[in-house]
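Q: I have 247 residues here and want to know how they pack in 3D. Can you give me a structure?
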Amino acid sequence: GGFSMGSSYFYLEFLMAWLTLLRDAGYRNPAIFALEYTLVPDERYPIQLEQTVAGYDHVCSIVKDPSRICLAGDSAGATLQLSLLLHLSKSSGPAKRRPGFATLISPWATLVTPKNRDTPSDYLNADSLHLYGRQFAGTQANLKDPLVSPGVCKDRDWWVRASPSGGFCFMYGSEEVFGPEVRDLIALLRRSGCAVRVREEPGQVHAWPVVSLFLADTQGERTKGLRDLTKIITQVIDPQIVQVDGL
């Protein structure tokens, strides 16, 4: 959370449940690569982005065809995925390195902005988030860098180049602190001509698919977000032709 706490191990049950759902959806040999990036204050930008790029390069070295890769992340993790996409679009041969799809759960689109406001329902606090964002960025100037804070990028051509071949999926709660900035980014991507699928869950809070898995009462409620994401992924990446050998 906030680039400063948490671990991929925290998501182990979430990822195992997702892997099962992907297999049940028809993917013959689905695999999930979870990145363990260095947290603030041990390191700051650009270390986390460099680690994200290295992780993506590793996956590409195994999968070979990037169109078979679906990026995913929630909150600060989703921010890093957006930064990765913007970075890849500036590197050599960006079209050959683009993933097939990106599923972004409650992305922290703009690290510091007055649009990130507390809501009566969400558990996040905007002031604390802005503190974490500044710690991650390291300098005030970095907060204006799209590779640090992707929501500040208003260059439509850059987003078109950054878009995965199958587009984006955004899933977030209608009551969350990041809601206004997420909606702004979705609108910009659509105006740019990018393919965007959106699931704004009424009455829900930040990263609700993750929260629901741990706190919901019934099995159906616990896996609702994951089942919705899996269904969307199958509409973009055909389970019948995708196989990941060697993982």
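Q: Anything worth noting?
A: Residues 212 and 221 are 7 Å apart (CA to CA). The chain has a mean pLDDT of 94.
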